[in-house]
């Protein structure tokens, strides 16, 4: 048994007995305690995308509400939406798509809680804000060792391992569409990434706010065209998804467990709800109330899974090529699109995955940067991290196999998620109070609710911002 087999065995044990139950349980608990916030406040989520209630002062260069949304969505919308969905369908069957939907609906409440906490406990950093789970674990739970553990895990998971997954998928797509050598593609990505990551959060936010809308809208339009061209097959596709999700026919009877596990794993990899990543981006925004970023990040989960992931799933299931034994990952998505639109399908996917995954690389990098800054206050560790994340691990992803990078990221995700869920369960009570305050102000006719730390005197000494 080699090291990858050992990692896979550990993954099966952790995911099968701990993480899935914890994610579903937390999602349902937060949904209940917030009175289904992810459904009843969708209109407010959309309105807040253009929120500009806090203006920078003097030389400050704060990140806008939309830019923070774009950075988090850049990390969410990536390999998981094209290659991850394909892998989930191959391993878990079409039923995995249903469980991805379930995770998105319940997980958006978890995303709301963790991102609101990221805003509540954010701290001043030069000319912007910085924050995330490491910060609310230390300030809210007063547990330095657990905060450092989380900071290390997310740096390894996102800044290093996750970037290898993104690069691996880009290289596979470019090789399939244009015949490019993976090493050449990896070298090009390394140069492009280093240019961006050495520019800081402002440059990352600017790039993400351009790439994310373009790639999401373009892919959605193409998927809608394919679905409309095959509208007569949609009832059949939905029936296949439901039957496989619950084992309602003989062929799917033994696949229920695989469908649930792979739907949850790939769903988490894609939308990151509960993983503790999005709060790092949410904390950078300059808003008048912490709940605003909580709502926007909940919308990000919907956008990622219910829109972009569903587009990929329908394209693959309509084509019928998911039963081909030699296709997996991005190759399956490319083949499915070629079946529907012809030879230019793989080329389109190659371009789309480049935009999707490259934006994820720079978004993932920032999550690691925020946590490297949490552990060390000096510049040298950050420089070393930038070289490792934007250079070494990007090239590493171009050289290793698909199975290797997925196995590593699954283990990292499991450990990271477990650490974050413990923290948000213990601190969730403050989010419920913030939500009540926000809604009370809205009922009073206040269009832009505001928050001051004096409203929470019991924890005011823990909050650096919100004067």
Characterise this structure.
This protein has 467 residues and is mainly alpha-helical. It contains 18 helices and two strands. It has helices at 3-33, 37-40, 42-48, 65-76, 79-92, 95-120, 133-141, 144-178, 182-197, 200-229, 234-246, 256-271, 278-282, 290-319, 329-341, 344-375, 379-399, 402-443; strands spanning 123-125, 128-130. It has a two-stranded antiparallel ribbon. A hairpin with a 2-residue loop joins β1 (123-125) and β2. α10 runs antiparallel to α16 (344-375). The N and C termini lie far apart (57 Å).
Topology:
Blueprint: H1 3-33, H2 37-40, H3 42-48, H4 65-76, H5 79-92, H6 95-120, E1 123-125, E2 128-130, H7 133-141, H8 144-178, H9 182-197, H10 200-229, H11 234-246, H12 256-271, H13 278-282, H14 290-319, H15 329-341, H16 344-375, H17 379-399, H18 402-443
Antiparallel strand pairs: 1-2
Percentage of residues in strands:
under 5%
How far apart lie the N and C ends? 57 Å
Low-confidence stretches: none
Oligomer: single chain
Report the count of strand segments. 2
The helix/strand class is: mainly alpha
Mean pLDDT: 81
Q: What characterizes the major β-sheet?
A: 2 strands, antiparallel
Summed up, the helix count is 18
Q: What global shape is seen?
A: globular
Q: Roughly how many Å is the radius of gyration?
A: 21 Å
Strand order of the largest sheet: 1-2
Helix content: over 70%
Order of helices and strands: HHHHHHEEHHHHHHHHHHHH
Features:
mainly alpha, 18 helices, 76% helix, 2 strands, 467 residues, single chain, 1% strand
């Amino acid at each position: 048994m080699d090291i990858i087999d050992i990692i896979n065995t550990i993954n099966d044990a952790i995911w099968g007995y701990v993480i899935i139950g914890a994610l579903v349980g937390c999602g349902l608990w937060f949904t209940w305690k917030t009175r289904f916030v992810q459904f009843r406040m969708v209109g407010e989520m959309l309105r807040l995308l253009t929120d500009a209630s806090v203006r920078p002062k003097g030389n400050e260069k704060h990140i806008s509400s939309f830019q923070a949304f774009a950075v988090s969505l850049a990390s969410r919308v990536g390999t998981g939406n094209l290659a991850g969905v394909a892998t989930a369908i191959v391993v878990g069957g079409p039923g995995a798509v249903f469980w991805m939907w379930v995770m998105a609906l319940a997980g958006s409440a978890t995303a709301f809680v963790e991102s609101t906490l990221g805003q509540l406990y954010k701290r001043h950093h030069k000319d912007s804000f910085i924050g995330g789970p490491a910060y609310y674990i230390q300030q809210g739970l007063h547990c330095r060792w657990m905060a450092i553990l989380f900071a290390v895990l997310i740096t390894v998971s996102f800044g290093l391992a996750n970037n290898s997954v993104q690069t691996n998928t880009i290289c596979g797509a470019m090789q399939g569409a244009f015949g490019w050598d993976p090493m050449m593609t990896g070298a090009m990505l390394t140069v492009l990434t280093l240019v961006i990551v050495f520019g800081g959060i402002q440059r990352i936010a600017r790039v993400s706010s351009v790439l994310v809308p373009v790639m999401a809208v373009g892919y959605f339009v193409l998927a809608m065209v394919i679905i409309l061209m095959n509208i007569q097959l949609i009832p059949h596709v939905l029936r296949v998804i439901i039957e496989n999700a619950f084992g309602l026919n003989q062929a799917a009877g033994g696949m229920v467990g695989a469908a649930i596990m792979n739907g949850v794993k790939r769903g988490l990899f894609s939308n990151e709800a509960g993983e503790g990543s999005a709060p790092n981006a949410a904390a950078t925004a300059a808003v008048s109330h912490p709940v605003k970023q909580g709502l926007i990040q909940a919308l990000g989960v919907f956008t990622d899974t219910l829109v972009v992931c569903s587009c990929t799933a329908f394209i693959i299931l309509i084509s019928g090529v998911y039963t081909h034994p030699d296709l997996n990952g991005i190759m399956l998505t490319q083949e499915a699109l070629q079946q529907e639109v012809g030879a230019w399908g793989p080329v389109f996917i190659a371009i789309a995955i480049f935009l999707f995954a490259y934006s994820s690389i720079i978004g993932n990098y920032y999550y690691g940067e925020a946590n490297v800054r949490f552990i060390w206050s000096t510049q040298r560790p950050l420089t070393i991290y930038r070289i490792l994340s934007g250079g070494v691990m990007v090239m590493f992803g171009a050289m290793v196999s698909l199975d290797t990078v997925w196995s590593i990221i699954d283990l990292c995700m499991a450990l990271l998620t477990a650490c974050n869920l413990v923290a948000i369960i213990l601190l969730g009570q403050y989010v419920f109070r913030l939500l009540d305050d926000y809604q009370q102000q809205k009922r009073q006719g206040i269009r832009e609710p505001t928050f001051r730390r004096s409203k929470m005197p019991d924890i005011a000494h823990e909050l650096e911002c919100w004067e």
